[in-house]
């Protein structure tokens, strides 16, 4: 991710600057924790596969893309799309 700053300005005295697109592993895990304290399986798998000191928005996008593969069961494998609609696919013709 790139951020272009056209006019660099110093941070005024008394203020601090915190990047909002960098997360520690604990902060990153917290984004994927539900109200019962359960962490998303996709987050755990991703963090296990890619251990880092700092996670970014790109990592959140990667988890979202990884989760899309399992959203609607095997429909993604059949169609290449995430859908809950049922269509007559070529392999269903023999079932008539």
Task: Quickly list its features.
mainly alpha; 4 helices
Written overview of the protein:
The longest helix has 12 residues, at 57-68. The protein has a domain at 22-80. The chain has helices at 25-31, 41-49, 57-68, 75-79; strands at 22-23, 55-56. Helices cover 34% and strands 4% of the residues. The chain has 96 residues and is mainly alpha-helical. A two-stranded antiparallel ribbon has the order 1-2. It contains four helices and two strands.
Helix content: 25-40%
Number of helices: 4
Regarding quaternary structure, what we see is single chain
Helices and strands, in N-to-C order?
A: EHHEHH
**Adjacency order of strands in the biggest sheet:** 1-2
Q: How many extended strands?
A: 2
| Low-confidence runs | 92-96
Topology:
Elements: E1 22-23, H1 25-31, H2 41-49, E2 55-56, H3 57-68, H4 75-79
Antiparallel strand pairs: 1-2
Summarize the structure.
The chain is mainly alpha-helical and 96 residues long.
